[in-house]
Amino acid sequence: MKKSTTGLLIGSALVVGLSGCATSAQQSSGQASASSNTGNNWYQHPAICGLAGGLIGGSIGYATSGSSNEESAAATGAAAGAAIGGLLCADRTPEPVAPQCPSYGEVPAGVAVDAEGCPLDSDGDGVPDYRDQCPGTPAGVEVDAQGCPLDSDGDGVPDYRDQCPNTPAGVEVNALGCPESLVLRDVNFEFDSAQLTSSAQQVLNGVAERLVNNPDVRVSIEGHTDSRGSAEYNQNLSQERAQSVANYLASRGVSSDRMRAVGYGEEQPIASNETDEGRAQNRRVELDEWN
Q1: SS3 assignment, position 77
Q2: Residues 212-269: pLDDT tens digits?
Q3: What is the tally of structural domains in the chain?
Q4: What 3-state class would DSSP assign to 238?
């Protein structure tokens, strides 16, 4: 048999085999995206395909060469065939694409999404609308996995509205989250006046924030004094101090029609007026629910 015929027969057989390897490799690449455990067979490796391509190219080069250039033609054909074989069996499995919204997990069909394909989160609390049991949470409020504001003491008043956090379990509270009137500790005034100190204003900033977040509650602001001085003077001073607190809260966004200021003077002491410590406790401002 002539060398050309022999070379072409060998080359044809190898071409058929290489084509099968390449086709199998492409099919495996497509299936790999469906299962991470799918791997290429040994005969689909680019090195094996390159070797087969080299044999094909070499045989074809040898078959088509003249008697004077058999070696060079075979070498050229082998090199070209090896390159082509390696390319045919190269792994074309696409790189896995990271999900755009990994924190949401698997999103059910039909859920409304934004331009990036992420589920809508209208109140921006990190819990998508389709899972949010408390829509409309104010910005910046910490929520649980259901999208509801945290209630650390479990009293039914969420933390961002609770004027009395850490209420003992089982204690009945009012709409402010307090079991009784709240003494606004550290809300002090300049000596013998209704002028709030700067530290008192800082305390009232937190009170105002929680009242703004609790818009359906009305409050009574009640001023008290110790027994030094005349009863009339103390009555007037306690009224002015209660009103000063109400005015400051109003400046921080609490509606004035939700507040009333009442002065009780020295009428309702909570400690003895015979000691400095007792008198200090009696000089106070309290916050209570106004029904």
Answers
A1: helix
A2: 999 999 999 999 999 999 999 999 999 999 999 999 999 999 999 999 999 999 999 9
A3: 2
A4: helix
**Residue 289: pLDDT over 80:** yes
- pLDDT score recorded for residue 37: 44
Any domain includes 146: no
| 289 beta partners | 219
What ranges make up the beta strands (E) of the chain? 182-183, 219-224, 259-263, 284-289
* 224 bridge partner residues: 284
User: In this structure, is residue 270 part of a structural domain?
Assistant: yes
Quick check: is 114 in a domain?
no
Measured between alpha carbons, how far is 101 from 120 in angstroms, rounded to an integer?
A: 11
**Which of the listed residues 34, 66, 88 is the one where a domain comes to its end?**
88
Select from 219, 222, 238 the least CA-distant residue to 230: 238
153 assigned to some structural domain: no
SS3 label, residue 128: coil
User: How far is it, in rounded angstroms, from Cα 203 to Cα 200?
Assistant: 5
Rg of the chain in Å (alpha carbons): 42
Encoded tokens for 242: 């209660």
pTM higher than 0.70 for the full model?
Answer: no
* 204 contacts: CB under 8 Å, gap ≥ 6: 184, 187, 196, 245, 248, 249, 252
Q: Would you say 177 and 161 are in contact if contact means Cβ atoms under 8 Å apart? A: yes
287 bridge partner residues: 182, 221
Q: Residue 37: give the domain boundaries.
A: 3-88
